[in-house]
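The authors assume throughout that readers already know how a fold can be written as discrete tokens. The format is easy to grasp once an entry is in front of the reader. For illustration, here is how one protein appears when written out as sequence plus structure tokens:
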Amino acid sequence: MATGVYFNTSRKMIGALRQSAVVHETMHNITGRYDSDMETLMGLPDCGDSTICISNALRDNGCAGN
């Protein structure tokens, strides 16, 4: 079950943390799904190794700010 939340906390990356990433990681905890399952659930194409398409879809559909 997907319940881990992962954020890169390096000084370089923490400034890039966005609301959409927080919502994305929260969805893992709520649904227990991994990225590939959430992509399917959301009707997204396979994002491959990058999961930014999930966060972008949340942002683009008004579910989270940039």
